[in-house]
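Exercise 7b. Backbone tokens:
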């Protein structure tokens, strides 16, 4: 059974930071891309960041310079460091793994998903 579990979400004020973590269990995923997505109420799920096993990354323009994705292949972990959070970052954040055609691919390129963790940023 493949299981992805996110943690680290919470309620913060604008300008503060959070670090999201995702633990993947069930098998080794060295060949897979790991990604972070988010979905705000009434909006579609969107790519936030993605990372290859070799370290190549993609960050959406809306978070570039503030968020940083990283992974620990030995422990099947993926992280999202979120600095200088803004109210518009408020959403449920999901981690996912898959083999998308590119790092900027939509959620259709991912095979396994976590249940999500809520991030709320107040002004």
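Sequence design result:
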């Amino acid at each position: 059974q493949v299981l992805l579990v996110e943690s680290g979400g919470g309620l913060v004020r604008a300008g503060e930071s959070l670090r999201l973590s995702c633990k993947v269990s069930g098998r080794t995923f060295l060949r897979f891309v790991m990604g972070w997505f988010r979905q705000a109420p009434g909006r579609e799920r969107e790519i936030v960041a993605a990372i290859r096993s070799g370290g190549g990354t993609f960050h959406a323009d809306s978070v570039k310079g503030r968020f940083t994705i990283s992974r620990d292949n030995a422990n099947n972990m993926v992280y999202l460091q979120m600095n200088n959070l803004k109210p518009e970052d408020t959403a449920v954040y999901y981690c996912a793994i898959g083999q998308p055609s590119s790092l900027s691919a939509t959620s259709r390129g991912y095979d396994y998903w976590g249940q999500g963790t809520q991030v709320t940023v107040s002004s």
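Instructor comment: The chain has no helices and eleven strands. The two ends are 40 Å apart (CA to CA).
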